């Protein structure tokens, strides 16, 4: 986790945008991995940005939709103190 709590709000957005661009342009080493990368930025208590980057060999369009849906379901439930219900 990268904390940006002490960075001004305007600069936080710029740093996150730069990280997204860098992550999107970073190559994957298929022989060494990892083929899925995650970065979490803490902007403030209770305010975070998660960046997931996956090589297309492990995540296709359908899988991406499932991952996004499941992450959103987990986020919504846990932010309300509930147990997430995922369709397996």
Please tell me the overall pLDDT: 93
| Main sheet attributes: strand count, strand direction, barrel closure | 3 strands, mixed
One letter per element, helices H and strands E, the order comes to: EHEEH
What is the structural class? alpha+beta
Beta-strand portion reads: 15-25%
Strand order of the largest sheet: 1-2-3
What is the number of beta strands? 3
Topology:
Layout: E1 2-3, H1 9-25, E2 36-44, E3 47-54, H2 61-79
Parallel strand pairs: 1-2
Antiparallel strand pairs: 2-3
Salient structural properties:
22% strand, alpha+beta, 3-stranded mixed β-sheet, 2 helices, 88 residues, single chain
What does this structure look like?
- This protein is of the alpha+beta class and 88 residues long.
- It has two helices and three strands.
- The chain has a three-stranded mixed β-sheet, with helices on one face.
- Strand 1, helix 1 (9-25) and strand 2 (36-44) form a beta-alpha-beta unit.
- It starts with a strand and ends in a 9-residue tail after the last helix.
- The model has no long low-confidence stretch (mean pLDDT 93).
Summarize the structure.
With 88 residues, the chain is of the alpha+beta class.
């Amino acid at each position: 986790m990268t904390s940006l709590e002490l960075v001004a709000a305007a600069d936080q957005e710029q740093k996150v945008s730069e990280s997204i661009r860098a992550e999107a342009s970073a190559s994957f080493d298929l022989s060494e991995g990892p083929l899925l990368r995650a970065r979490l930025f803490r902007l403030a208590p209770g305010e975070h940005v998660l960046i997931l980057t996956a090589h297309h060999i492990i995540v296709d369009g359908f899988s991406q939709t499932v991952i996004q849906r499941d992450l959103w379901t987990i986020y919504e439930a846990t932010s309300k103190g509930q147990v997430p219900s995922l369709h397996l």
